[in-house]
Structures are given as structure tokens and as C-alpha cells.
Amino acid sequence: MEPTPELSPHHAYPDHWEADVVLRDGGTARIRPITTDDAERLVSFYEQVSDESKYYRFFAPYPRLSDRDVHRFTHHDYVDRVGLAVTIGGEFIGTVRFDRINEQGRPASAPADEAEVAFLVQDAHQGRGVASALLEHIAAVARERGIRRFAAEVLPANNKMIKVFRDAGYTQQRSFEDGSVHLTLDLEPTEKSLAVQRGREQRAEARSVQRLLAPGSVAVIGTGRTPGGVGRTVLRNLLAAGFTGRTYAVNRAFDEGLATLDGVPAHRSLGEIDEQVDLAVIAVPAHRVPEAVADCGEHGVQGLVVLSAGYAERGSAGRELQRELVRQARSYGMRIIGPNAFGIINTAESVRLNASLAPESPARGRIGLFTQSGAIGIALLSGLHRRGAGLSSFISAGNRADVSGNDFLQYSFEDPDTDVALLYLESLGNPRKFTRLARRTAAVKPVVVVKGARHSGTNPPGHAVPVSRIPDATVSALMRQAGVIRVDTVTEMVDAGLLLAGQPLPAGPRVAILGNSESLGLLTYDACLAEGLRPRPPRDLTTAASPQDFRDALAEALADGTCDAVIVTAIPWVGENGEAETGDGEVLAAALRGAAAGGPAKPVAVVHVEIGGLAEALAAASSTAAPRTRPTTLAGRPAAAPGAPTGAAPATATAPTGPGTEAPAETAGAAGTTETTETTETTEPAATEAADPPARPGRIPAYPAAERAVRAMAEAVKYAQWRRQAATPGKVPEFLDETTDEPGAAALIDTLLGTAPDPRGRPLTHDEARELLGRYGIPVRPTLPAPDPEAAVAAAARLGYPVALKTTAPHLRHRADLGGVRLDLTDEDALRRAYAEVTELLGKPAELLPVVQSMAPRGVDTVVRASIDAAAGAVLSFGLAGAPSELLGDTAHRLVPATDRDAAELIRSIKAAPVLFGWRGSAPVDTPALEELLLRLSRLVDDHPEVVSVALEPVVVAPQGLTVLGATVRLAPPPPRGDLGPRRLPNY
Questions:
Q1: Residue 155 carries which DSSP code?
Q2: How many CA atoms lie within 13 A of 481 on its CB side?
Q3: CB of 81 within 8 A of CB of 65?
Q4: Residue 747: how many other CB atoms lie within 10 Å
Q5: pTM higher than the cut 0.90
Q6: Would you call 947 helix, strand, or coil by DSSP?
């Protein structure tokens, strides 16, 4: 909305404070500053607040607001006096304001850094988390305006309001004065306040998806009067799936006398329906969608699936239509799947929802599937169906204007019916948040991702999100760090998903291979070696092997403590007449299932060649397995935690509250506002692990090719290893010693950037970079300029021989192969000769910018970098200097802040890592010193976001110690960190 202009530009309307938020019950609301145009809204809002809430707010009966009150509560300078409102449908449902005060509690201006805060929430919306969201946003506003503390006076009887402040996670003080409780909150974010914020975000966003997937009633808007068409197809699919709720057909073109269509009530508008509709599927032309959305919003619909096309995939005009669609839906508190969506499916027996264009609802299973492409969604549904796999839920988000893969992860984390989350993504709207959510979800259940549009450098049409500058290899490395199983194709995703959903995780990489074909066994053996597994020699059962022979061999392999997984290979039996017998698939499947059910919990996969009925029979084992009691249960038979010894008891832990589970109510409210108490679990849900036995043995996945089975098993092995390591996470060192001077570094950065820094930033000189890095215990070997031979000799005398002569011109930097670097110059004559040769070969000193540097101990040349990507955040990178990293791309990456484990993995994950550990008889280098350097650089970048890029090159790592020979640093105003601010929905 356009506010009335303020008197001073300094008090301009702060539109960046506007935000859409998800409330505790999954609905959305708008938070924005209160303006002078809001007088009527404020009065109307106040009239709907109960007398009790008014009393708690003003400490006395206060039936109505005076004109003076209305003026005071709607006129703000947005610096010392700020008011925010939560709106739904344009009307206020809650407000908060602060007034800056001095030490005596009187109105003040900066530099006073304390403010009095008060809330008021409409009674009909208490219990939805309104005040909790308002507190997060008003605290962020206050910090922006230099306010460090909030003070609030609360009546002792208002325990719920006191709990709001207490549960926020901020440092607080409490005292009893003059009949009221005086609360003081320190607004500096704490680890606890951030955990509280993320925990509330997780529960709210999970609930918002759960409302879409489990509605009590569905209306299909745009249902055709004749068979065919999108709307009529969705209606038919809803009915065919046996949706347990109520279904309505809506089309404004229906004849007035039409009462039913396909056996369900038919209406011309939602207003004709006597009850509230939970979910609306919109299948009308794009130009009619706003009318349909308004009708939904005015009649209390909770969520929308927009199948209509004609939005951002059509260009800039369509993108603006898409943004307006999201704004309109959110203004009514609704979330959107789409537009240009394929639909949603929920196979839970209590729901049986198929609100999609998929003609056949998949079987019930343990896999959750999210896709940003309708075509890929169709292919995945078909592929899973062919292989007998069932789904728990399916979302095809189309243009993904609102509900995204992040929301799906929030839901999957808690969903007790989902054991594996599969995601096909073409863009990442918030990569930092995705990495955080994926890490937490992967700690309790596998997350398998295919990333489309990897190399185009742009987003697909319709996906209006920031474009990351980091290469795809870096994205893949960061996903791996978060525990995500990233694969290249949808076929690989299905292959991995089937294994992870049906089998326990392997305890290690040792694989037993058995079967009735020596050749197929050898192919499987070779594939295992190629994937980094440790296969045992294949056991050939010969072509005469019977199903009982397979059963006995599999049981023996599972009982063998020297193997962690088994791959069974099978070809058709050859009968006495020499013809292949292909009809015994069901018999063999029963034999394999029997052995697997009776043996220790280890993953089993089958590679088969044209054995009729085998894959189907194996898939039928538990494609409709009963749900387990905890959301964090691993798929398959009773299994120990990954890495536990074979036969160990299953690990158990308390699981987070599921989205459908009743939880204690929420507190919010104001200095004087009642709101139902918030759930006692105020921190971010912990990553717990449990493994309960399913109702029957898990399905055994079958593959038509050895390499596909082995690749899926290798992904399971790597994921299990990540799970074992994630159970005891690494630590981020503090470096609390005399080598680290964080305040000094901050002061230096402020000085270097100046009071009006260039948004593009500035590179530091060599000496400036040395000084800044030195504040974090990263010494850089000094260099001295050598504009002529005499200066070079003087520099060498100052530094001490032996020295190196190097050119620093950009086109020659680090290019020893071009002759711009001369090493081990032991005296003045050698230095003068080298200077003459370099200038004669490459050009004048003014062009070459030569420098002199003392020699470092011999070692391995490496390169260490850190950079800030606008989408992904701070990234730490490592590789060997020169051809390995520059030509072959052999570089490893981790997100900042890096833990001690991250640093150790970083230097060991490059392909050339053996060079650091004594390859071909060379002396191993000082990797602990290298790990410390990585951690110090990570700490520097994490502490000071103004440091947007650092390159240490080369870093010579010797058997004892290391030397940083070159450093380039760039400073810039810090980019915004949306992941650290108050929770808000992205605006694409």
C-alpha cells in the first residue's frame, strides 16, 4: 500500500519491513508498518478485541480508542516510534509498537538504545502464533534502528504474555515493581533465539503443506460441463482415488438447475456451498484466476492448487501476473502450489487424495516426491509405478511461485508416512535455507535430489529466483556436505529411492555378490570397484542353482560378519531341453524374501536379466506397508543405526511432533494480550534417529543392469557414512588466543571500507591484506617491490637470501610456466641475472610489477579460497595449485562456518589428496597445519561478512608447517543475510 508521505525523507516508509509469514496453523499473514491511512482499520480491529485483552493491554478498562489514541498509534517516525500490524484480507488481526525511551523511561531519541514494547492480538486469532511472529519482526526493526533492549510492563496475571517473552530465547531480566512485572529483553540474537525461530518456522511451514495435502474438502473450480478438460479430469481423479473428504464441482457457467456433476454437488460459486472448503483446485484460464482466488479468499479456503498456465513461463508480463497471484492469495492467508502445476497426491488411507492430472493414483508407500516439472513428475510417477514402488505424497509445483522444495523438506521431516524424500529441482530459491533443512532432514531420513538446469547459468522459465554464480560442482559438494544424495538423472533417483525406502542402511562398503551367472557377477564386481565399494569375489551358484540354493546362499552372506550388503545376480534357468525358463520369478522372489527376513539387517539388491515376474514379485513384498510409529524410522527391516554392528539392537529416540499431532497451544500476545500458550518445544526440532520394525519385510529392489544396482548401493553406503559422522558433529574452533583479534579486524575493516563504501567493494593492497589476515593468525610472507635491479638487491638484503623474484602483473600472476617466477636466488649476482632475464623475456618492470620474497621451505603448493555467493552464502574451497585445480577442476568445497571435521574432509576429498600424504615415497606434509589454516580463514569470513573473497595462493605445505606466499582480499558492504533475520516467505 502507498503510505502518506512523512515530513522528512529520513522517516520514509520502510517497505523492506513488509513480509509474508506462515503462522502456526499453516495459514499466512502479512506484516507491515502501520501508516496514517490505517485509522479506520485500527478502530475496527480494536472493536473486535475482548475487554479482557484490552485490560491486559492498558492495565484498566479501555472500551474504545480516543481520537488522540488513534492519531498516536498511526503516526510514527519509523525511528523512535514504530508500529507494525499483521493483516489478513487487508484487515488488522494484531499490532505491536515500540517507543524509544531513556534511562528514566521517558520518550527519547538516539543514542538511547532502549524501547518500550506492547502487543495486541485479536481474540479470534490468538493461538496462531501472531505475537511470536510480531516479536521477531519488531526486534529486527529495533536492532536496525539502534535499539538493543526492549522493556515491557505486564500484569502478574498475564502469565501467557510473560511466557511469550520467556520462550523467545533472548537474554532477559525480570523484576516486580508497582504491582506489575517489569521485563527487559536483550535483542541481540542468541543461539537459543535462533533455534526457537527456526523451530517455529519448521512447524508452521510443515503444517502449511500438511493442510494442502490433507484437506477435509476440495472444490475443483473450472470443472467442465462435458467430459474432458483439465478441471473435469481432476474431478474424475479425485473420485477414482476414493478421496475421503467432500468434493465439489464449481463453474460459474453451470446451469442454475444443475445440482450434481459426476455424483458430486455442482455450484456456480463457492458462496453457494454451505460449508467451508479447505482446498481449491483452480483450472480456469489465467485471466479468470484472480476472480477465482478472490472467491476462495472471501469464503475461507485454506490453500490453492493452481493448474492454470500463462504466467512466468510466458515472459516478463506473465511473471508480473504470477507475483500478483501470490500477493493476492497470501493477502487472504492462503498458500499456493503452482501456477502451471500438475497437482498433488496423498495416499494416506485417511485421505486418499489425487488432486492431479495423473490418471492413476500410485500405491501407498514410504516415498515422498516433489518436482518442479510436470513432465518429470509424470515420468517419475510412471517409473515408480512400473517398479511397484508406492508413494506417501506427491507435489508437482510447476512454476513454484510459493510452495517450494524447502517447504516439502519441512513437511517430510515430520511426516510419519515418509521414509525417503525425492526432489527434482530446477532452481533453488533459498540455497542457504535448503542446505540447512536438507542437513536436518537427512539426519533422520534420506534426501535424494536431481538438479536440472545445472549448466545453463539461468533459471528455467517461470522460476524467478536469484541465479547462483558458483559452478555446479560446488553446488554438488555443498549438497553432499549437507547429507543430500545428489544424482544426475531421474532414473538414478528412482534407483536410489527404491533401495533406501525398502532396505536398511549398510554398515560399511563391503559387498557380497552371489548369483547363477559368472559373467554377470564379474560385471557387478567391476562396477563395485568403480564406485569405490569393497566387493568380495563373486560367488557363482552356477546356472543349475535352484531358488532354494539362492535362499541358502543369501542367508549365508547375510550372516557373514565380513560383508555389509549383498547384491544378488540372476539370469533365467536353462531347462533340460536347453530353453530358458523365465516363469519362476515369483518362486525366486519368495526365496530371497525369506532369506532376507530371517537374516541380520543388511541391504539386499537384485540384478536380473529377463526373469519374468521377479521384479514385480519382489516389489509386492511391502509396496503398501503399514505406517511406522515414528517419522524418523529408516525404511526396511528392523535395522540398527547406520554403522552399528550387524545384529545390533535398533536405535530409538523420541521423534518430533508430527504435523497431524495435537500439541500444546502457543503463546503470543502483548503486554496485556492473551494468546494460547505455545508448544513447549520452542527450539528447532532435533535430528533424532529411530528404527522400528515395519509390519512386514521391506521390498527388495530389482535392477535390470549391474551398474544401476551398484550405483544405488554406493549412494546408500556414502549416505550411511555421513549419518554416522553426523551423529557426532564436528566443532567450529573459537581460536580464543592471542593470535586472533576479532575486534581489531572489525575496526580495520571499518577503516578500510570508509564511511561511504562503494557497493562494488574494493581490493586490498598486499600490506592491507597481510594486516587483516594477521589478525586471525594467518601470516603472509612479506614481499617488497622491485621496480629496478637496485631495488631488488636492496629488498633481498632486507629479507635475507635465498629469495624469489616474482612478477605480479595480473596476466603473469602464479604463472611460473611463463618464466615470471625465479626461485632459490642465493646471492646478488643470481638476483641481477634473473631480473635481467625476466625483463628481457616478458617486458618492462612497469608492466611486470616485480617483487622480491624470501624463500619458503619446500612442500606441496596448494590454494585456499573463500568467497561469498549471493545465493549460497560463504563457501570455503581447497585444491592443489596449478593444473589440478585450474585445468582439471579438482577442488573441494564446504560451507562456512567449517567444522574441524569439514576441514579434515576438505583436504582429503580432492582426487590429488594422496600427494599430501606421501604419494610415491614423498614425505607427508603437515596436514594439521593446513586444517588449522582452513578453519582460521573460515572463522574470518564468518565473523566478518564484509570479507567477500579471499584467495591464498600459493600456500606451500611442508612436512613441518606451511607458508602463505600470496594473498588477495576483497572487501564490500555485507550482502543481506535473509537466513538470520526474522522468518518470512520469499517473494519471487
A1: -
A2: 29
A3: no
A4: 12
A5: no
A6: strand
